[in-house]
Write a structure and sequence with these properties.
alpha+beta, eight-stranded mixed sheet, 5 helices
Length: about 200
């Protein structure tokens, strides 16, 4: 699908998008930053998953929209058990004969937790950074212009078969997003916690 998006010049990001009260947030971060774990914790706090791993962002008039996409969240056995899910009631990413049992590779899958609209207005983009103390809750921090630019370009979906520079359309969309949408760094508490206290920006 990433190759199809790139061939059609459809802009998407490697992240997770969730919705609450008719507004979407996009979670970005480096590999192993904890995007899926953070998304699972937010789902436990009443958020609806819109898309995981491959998140489209498109402009509709004066609004930026997140179309509902592949809303199956992949989590490890530890995350599933800590958040109170029964692994025996969850599907695995791969179910073919010979699929690995290690949940770090063949992860468990959380389905969409509520019906979603075809697309949802994008409210904010949060870039996941280092974890904070376990009792700290979610902490938001401003980012410099350079860091915001680096975060968006660094998380653009790329074609896994052919590495190419961002297209003119991707450049346009990233520049407009930086102008129109709030981009902040976010620090989640260390560990996996159900029922987080959320800052107002997340409401």
């Amino acid at each position: 699908m990433r190759s199809v998006f790139r061939a059609r010049d459809i802009t998407s990001f490697h992240g997770a998008a969730l919705e609450r009260n008719g507004r979407a947030v996009l979670l970005l971060g480096a590999k192993e930053a904890g995007k899926s774990t953070a998304a699972a914790m937010l789902m436990q706090s009443g958020w609806t998953l819109l898309s995981d791993d491959l998140v489209r962002v498109k402009q509709n008039g004066d609004h930026w929209m997140v179309p509902t996409g592949f809303c199956h969240l992949k989590i490890s056995l530890h995350t599933a058990q800590t958040l109170g899910f029964d692994p025996h009631q969850l599907h695995r990413r791969w179910t073919i004969p010979g699929a690995p049992e290690d949940s770090r590779i063949n992860k468990f899958v959380l389905e969409c937790n509520a019906p979603a609209l075809p697309e949802t207005p994008l409210h904010a983009i949060f870039v996941i950074g280092e974890r904070g103390p376990r009792d700290s809750g979610i902490q938001l921090k401003p980012m410099s212009g350079v860091d915001r630019l680096r975060a968006l370009f660094g998380n653009l979906t790329i074609d896994p078969c052919i590495v190419t520079p961002p297209s003119p359309e991707q450049l346009r969309i990233v520049n407009r997003l930086l102008s129109d949408i709030e981009v902040q760094a976010v620090s989640f508490p260390n560990g996996i916690i159900s029922g987080l206290t959320l800052p107002r920006s997340f409401q």
